[in-house]
Design goal:
The chain is an alpha+beta fold. The protein has one helix and two strands, in the order ββα. It has a two-stranded antiparallel ribbon with strand order 1-2. The protein is extended, with a radius of gyration of 15 Å.
Length: 67
């Protein structure tokens, strides 16, 4: 989501169970323009960014900790 593309961000939180363990599930959804097809293969790679400032580690860190 960007100032140019806009959109609405929705966050839902619910109790969850996985492999017999209780926890919390957090879901993020938005109505923004989405990730361009050319970037979809790269967005979870470390240091990939489209921003002028930033290091591109966010999605790489999250994807490794959520498996």
């Amino acid at each position: 989501m960007s100032e140019v593309g806009g959109g609405t961000l929705t966050i839902t939180i619910a109790r969850a169970e996985k492999n017999g363990r209780e926890g919390v599930e957090v879901k993020f959804a938005d109505t923004g323009p989405g990730v361009p097809p050319a970037q979809r293969e790269e967005i979870f790679n470390p240091f990939m960014t489209t921003k002028k400032t930033g290091v591109g580690l966010g999605l790489s860190i999250v994807s490794k900790n959520c498996r």
